Fold this sequence. Notes:
Residues 16-229 form the Thiaminase-2/PQQC domain. It is an enzyme of class 1 (oxidoreductase). Its EC number is 1.3.3.11. InterPro entries: Haem_Oase-like_multi-hlx (IPR016084), PqqC (IPR011845), PqqC-like (IPR039068), Thiaminase-2/PQQC (IPR004305). There is one protein chain. This protein is mainly alpha-helical and 239 residues long. It is 70% helix and 3% strand. It has a single domain (11-235), classed as Heme Oxygenase, Chain A. It has helices at 11-20, 30-36, 42-68, 73-87, 98-109, 114-118, 125-140, 143-149, 156-170, 180-203, 207-235, and strands at residues 89-91, 94-96. A two-stranded antiparallel sheet has the order 1-2. A hairpin with a 2-residue loop joins strand 1 (89-91) and strand 2. Helix 4 (73-87) runs parallel beside helix 5 (98-109), helix 8 (143-149) crosses helix 11 and helix 9 (156-170) runs antiparallel to helix 10. The termini are far apart. The structure holds pyrroloquinoline quinone. Pyrroloquinoline quinone binds at residues 59, 150, 152-153, 156, 159, 185, 224.
Amino acid sequence: MLSDTGAAWSRTEFEARLREQGKAYHIHHPFNVMLNTGKATPEQIRGWVANRFAYQIAIPVKDAAVMSNCPDREVRRGWIQRMLDHDGYEIGGVKDEGGIEAWIRLGMATGLTREEITDGRHIIPAVQFAVDAYINFARQRPWQESVCSSLTELFAPEIHKQRLATWPEHYPWIEAEGLQYFRNRVTQARRDVEQGLEVTLGYFNTQPLQLRALDILKFKLDVLWAMNDAMATRYGVNP
Length: 239
Ligand SMILES: O=C(O)c1cc(C(=O)O)c2c(n1)C(=O)C(=O)c1cc(C(=O)O)[nH]c1-2
């Protein structure tokens, strides 16, 4: 049971309050429901992938902003993994192409060319505005708030698993290797969440701060929701 007495919530209760916000996750947006129930046309899927590219390339820029505001070496040591996950790396002969490249491959598996993904020609202005709001938040706010804003990832493994479960059946025309991005993210997101929760549950330790954390998570949920609103307006939502 969640109580509301004005005192700080326990870590367990605070985490439950954060998780409760998942009801506003974009997994429930009509545009996403359409994508994951097999009702989207190839054009709508391509539109989504091409627009989400704006988010994909923003994530490591956002993470660099978090690091630039963070004086704690231990936190930075953990956080840098996120940039490697998305940008890829080649260290000591070990190479990983990274999530941005995996996303481009997803786009190519849906029939887009590399060029039309990376030059951003399909990106809707309102999607870019929403993405920029997230980057600007991370540039301007204390790093602990930015860490909290990443916690929409609490709900991300479910949406990736949903795609992996439904896309091959509904969209057999998408080459299967294209879905590798989603496979990678299921584990990466779980690890990110562990780190993000550790910081958030520790730092937001009075009720006013905990309420602030809920507001921050709401802001980030809104970023994702607004992106979907913009795509629904541009590409339509089929009944
Ligand atoms: O496909 C999705 O619905 C989705 C959502 C989110 C999210 O909840 O912010 C992320 C991702 N994917 C993702 O792949 C990812 O790497 C990621 C990083 C972050 C972040 O805020 O740092 N969110 C997300």
